[in-house]
Amino acid sequence: MSELKPIGEVLKGIIKEIPPNKKPNNNNDDDNNKINFDDLEICKFPRDVVEYNQNSNCLNSTIIKDEGKTYMEKEFKNLSGYDYKVISLLPFNKNKTLFDLKVLLVISYLTDFFKRRFITVSFTDFIKLLGVKDTGHYRRAIIKTLDYHTCTTYKFPYIWDFNKRQRNDDVPLTDKGIIDYSKLTSFSVFHIINSYHIKNLNDLRSYKSRIEIELSQEFYHRFLNYYIVIDFKKAVKFKNPTSLNLYLFMKNNWGIKKSHKYSIGFEKLKKEIGITDTNKSRAKDTFKTAWREIKNQGLLPYISYYPSPSKTGKKNIHFKLVN
């Protein structure tokens, strides 16, 4: 299990510290040190997070131990049939929520805004970008999500190689023809956050309470080269997790073959956007509600959809340009 080391310097306490010589320089404590985020409404978002989501397609989960530490290892298969693993240090494993995804939206937004992998921002600004109340509850929730992203390693054997412009085809196999996750290429294994530091956590009255985040080099490199473009200001307002999942799914899949249409079986779509209800009628209503929320936010105005049965009798969803 030595390949789990990309998690970084695991747990010198819950709060991680960025090395002093690497800290960003926008760290004044003055209340006037406010950043105007109004000029940036759209931003990049990591495509890997969408292609290898963890919504409802977990195949297996296992507790593993290595060098005195305990991890939760989850195995997944994505829409294209590619296997991958997500490994989290316990007790920081969690089932990802809408809030967790929104925190990642904010991190992506700040990364695109500052154009670097070292981010310093006031807790007040971070919470304003999230669109929630500035309370101790939400500050602690942000820290839990930062813990998760710091203590979780992603292993994507068939990750997109943007240098070759194709799926990675250098996937090591065991004698039994099973993926050997211990021998993956370096760019197939990464985590999102190297470390983070919280300054003046409980000072809710000023901009002195700050978050300093160091993204991993691997994640930042992929963020710059393999991404979708989203409307952050509207996407972060979603109230329904299915709506945000569906929006990101469509941004990732619409037009990938320079086509103005896209079709997918409803059962596959359900797994990709986190609809777990086995009742067909309720599942259909959940999808309709999510699509309606997307439209109400003014997103994807150029796309409509219509359902139709496939030759096997299963429902397909067809997306097309609005006439």
For the biggest sheet, the summary is:
5 strands, antiparallel
Biggest sheet strand order reads 2-3-4-6-9
Over the alpha carbons, how many angstroms does the gyration radius reach? 20 Å
What gap, in angstroms, lies between the N and C termini? 54 Å
Strand content: 25-35%
Q: What is the number of E strands? A: 15
Shape: globular
Tally of domains: 2
Specify the structural class. Answer: alpha+beta
List keywords for this structure.
Arc Repressor Mutant, subunit A; single chain; alpha+beta; 15 strands; 9 helices; 323 residues; globular; 3-stranded antiparallel beta sheet
Structural overview:
By secondary structure, the chain is of the alpha+beta class. The protein has two domains: 2-231, no CATH class; 238-321, Arc Repressor Mutant, subunit A (Orthogonal Bundle). It starts with 41 loop residues before the first strand and ends with a strand. Strands 2-3-4-6-9 form a five-stranded antiparallel β-sheet. The protein is 30% helix and 25% strand. 33% of the residues are buried. It has nine helices and 15 strands.
Write the layout of secondary structure elements.
Blueprint: E1 42-46, H1 47-51, E2 58-66, E3 69-77, E4 83-89, H2 98-114, E5 118-122, H3 123-130, H4 136-150, E6 152-155, E7 160-161, E8 166-167, E9 189-190, E10 193-199, E11 210-215, H5 217-225, E12 227-231, H6 232-235, H7 241-253, E13 261-265, H8 266-273, H9 280-296, E14 303-309, E15 315-321
Helix pairs in contact: 7-9
